[in-house]
Amino acid sequence: MGAKSYIWKLPDTLPSHSREVAKDHGPDMQRWQTRVETEYPHLVAHLIWDRDRLAALEQAVDQVMADTDGIAGKDLLRQSLLNRLTGLGLLDTLLIDDRNTEIMVNGPHAVFCEQQGHIIAVDLQFNDADEVALLAQRLAHRAGRELTTEHPWCDAQLGDGSRIHCVLPPISEQPVLTIRRAPRQPLEVMDYLDGGAMSLELWNDLKRWVGLRRNLLVAGGAGTGKTSLLRLLAEQCGSDERLITIEDVRELNLRHPHVVSLESYRQHT
């Protein structure tokens, strides 16, 4: 059974002045957030949170806030900090719905998601373009990437395998954000066979061509299973072979004893 998704939210029972208290400690909140993201980057590089991930993050937050015993409203500040580190605002409701495999934000007033291969409009709107840009920067930071007006483009993978693509002006007219959620389980050969994507005869031919070192091209639309198929094909190489992969964003993660996994480097000018 897969882990249950979880998004931290401030409890409804908090006193009415709760957000004002958190706002009053804005500089402290920013300092604590920066420390957690800097000292525990592997704990914040997630899109969807299960209980184990959240428990580990809570321990890190407690370590960072260990010197705040004298601050009034510490419990509230702790919850607010967790919300900053785990939540994605308006997109939280879309992220906890497993039917949504991809989320697309084309500016503040155009949000779409993909379900079962169909793109549908979502009745969500951000306040303005700055809110979208800040959200994109938060996601890029989780992936250890920089997203600024000087570096206005980011394509990266989070620790849970989710893929993000962020673009800021002047490259785009509006801030643009795309999130492609990682599948809970990678596709296996039987998924392709049972789903009718290919026959057993074709799979046997593909394995044979890999053994013969034939050149193979795997092409298709976004989310159609290209990476999964390429992973399965590469894993047919013998254990005495050395595999070198070069990707824009590292996501193949081959199950092979001898792999050198490289990621392309873009130098901004």
TrEMBL record:
Family listed: Belongs to the GSP E family.
GO molecular function: ATP hydrolysis activity
Domain of life, source organism: Bacteria
Protein name: CpaF family protein
Entry's transmembrane regions: none
InterPro entries for the chain: P-loop_NTPase, T2SS/T4SS_dom, T4SS_GSP_E_ATPase
Organism: Sulfobacillus benefaciens
Domain Bacterial type II secretion system protein E, residue spans: 95-267
